[in-house]
Amino acid sequence: MRIWRFGDNINTDYITPGRLNLTDDPKELAKIAFKEYRPEFSEKVKKGDIIVAGKNFGCGSSRETAPVALKAAGIRAVIAKSFARIFFRNAINIGLPVIICKEADIIKEDDIVEIDLKKGIINIVNRNVALQCEKLPEFILKIIEAGGLINYIKIHGKLG
Amino acid sequence: MGMTLVEKILAKAAGVEKVSPGEIIIAKVDIAMSHDTTTPLAIKPFFEIAERVFDENKVVIFFDHVVPPANIRSAILHKKIRDFIEKVGIKNVHMEGVCHQVLAEKYVKPGDVVIGADSHTCTHGALGAFATGVGSTDIATVYALGKIWLRVPETYRMNILGKLKRGVYAKDVILNIIGYIGADGAVYKSIEFHGDLIKEFSVSSRLTLTNMVIEMSAMNGIIEADEKTLDYTGRKGTIFHSDKDAEYEEVFDFEMNDLEPQVAKPHSVDNVTDISEVEGLEIDQAFIGTCTNGRVEDIRIATQILDGHKVKEGVRLIVTPASNRVYLECLRKGYIEKLLRAGAIVTNPGCGPCLGRHQGVLAPNEVAISTSNRNFMGRMGSPEAKIYLASPATVAASAVEGKIADPRRYL
Question: How many domains does chain A have?
Fold first, then answer.
């Protein structure tokens, strides 16, 4: 498991370039993740890796190919100082955990982290540091726990 | 404490008396939309929870991003969408322009809740509607249930004041505001536009403003509907006003009297400057079109500048009317003929080269100036190309000179 660090305002065109995302197959999408912005990503990413980014991660388009590609590539969670709203929703809706952490900069690429979504805490295990993050509303936690919005609706029989 | 018009629209949609920022509501949707890029990923989740759409009158599907299909992959996706449309009983299907333009022309009414699987769905706020973009799973559940979960946004009130100088337009105003607020300056906010300049703006200009609020990461932008709105839509709807004691997280006064033509430089929309800083920079392609600036008013201004001139040799000027209705009106008014005589390439209505899939893709190191809303690296082709954003007037003047040019010389 490793951490992939990114800066501010990483947009959906960087995550899944509009010219390349002409597919609805998650495995194909995983192959184009950050293909131009950071070519090594799709080659080296492994199951269980985590993305740690700056402000406004996932800004730009509404394309759900962006979180789908990251999840299919094996990304376990995305931690950012803030998220663009649509990416945030899309990630939750497909069951990809997203955590808003103002102190995300503290996390280094070689750190090992554990995430407690319910409490909103990130533990940097190798350095014994705990970061308090924004707690997600109960309703959103339930969607993530269900594995996404569709499963949530199947379990509860309705949206609300 | 009173409510903003967005809070009023959302309270009505949630069936409650009052909503407050931060609250999560389940809202009924009046118009739901997706297109050829976002529909494919909605198909599987839809069939997991439904067989038919919740209301065939409220669902609209567009083919606009790559029309007609430019390659086998997009043709396959179009075919998948057509099968879906037939299976689930969708009757409103369009291939006559950019989704947001056709939706504004034919569907949206003041007071509506409009949910679209496209980030520029915020455009429809110009018509006094609550409109916001979502992804494919969200739109699949809206198609199935007619409802969506929303977190009620805090509101920024922006008063746009003064009078614009000759050669300065709504596009310059919104670029200037985005430059000031920043790409992440309004994350999750609702932006309510007021002020004498807004009242004076045509509906076309208002659509340009609200179209781009997503570029500062806002949830939606909104303008109270008035007579102009009703003239434009021809549909009545419900006109909401913000209460005098509505709560705003912040109030901004933007004075626009001295505004110069604005340009957003590569590779972010908030990298905005006065035209003087980039004037003279050589270009390879000029593009006029999109949900931001592909309407009759935009093409009229461009024609006015290009009439009697020629597009500079070696430069491609691509003009993509935003809809068939726009295209026909431009034909009737003689704009298309003038543009063709000036050397423009006029394409069929749709998203055109905005997202780099066809109709004008950029080579490495090429430079484009565009009336669209995004200049992200790789957006219109090679990641090594550069994209500048500006008004239709600035783009037209630049096409004539073959370099970024101040349009005021031609007006």
Answer: 1
Interface confidence, given as ipTM, is 0.92
Mean pLDDT over each residue of chain B, to the nearest integer: 97
Same domain for B321 and B176: no
Q: Are residues B241 and B205 in the same domain?
A: yes
| CB spacing of A139 vs B149 below 8 angstroms | yes
Tens-digit pLDDT profile for residues A64-121 = 999 999 999 999 999 999 999 999 999 999 999 999 999 999 999 999 999 999 999 9
CA nearest to B45 within chain A: A150
Do B29 and B130 fall within a single domain? yes
Report the residue of chain B nearest A63, measured CA to CA. Answer: B135
Residues in chain A within 8 Å Cβ distance of B136: 64, 90
Q: Which residues contact B62 (CB under 8 A, 6 or more apart)?
A: B33, B34, B35, B36, B93, B94, B95, B98, B99, B102, B103
Nearest C-alpha of chain A: how many angstroms from B40?
A: 6
B136, part of any domain = yes
Distance CA B243, CA B2 (A): 5
- Cβ of A56 within 8 Å of Cβ of B379? The answer is no
End of a domain among B254, B282, B314? B254
Q: State pTM to two decimals.
A: 0.95
Evaluate whether residue B1 is within a structural domain.
no
| Residue B229 touches partner A, C-beta closer than 8 Å | no
**What does each C-alpha distance from B387 to B73, B167, B282, B283 come to in angstroms?**
26, 21, 12, 9
Residue B78 CB contacts under 8 Å (≥ 6 apart), including other chains: B36, B63, B69
Number of domains in chain B: 2
Give the range of the structural domain holding residue A84, as residue numbers without chain letter. 3-156
Which residues of B, range 292-331, sit inside 8 Å of A by Cβ?
none
Q: Is residue B294 part of a domain?
A: yes
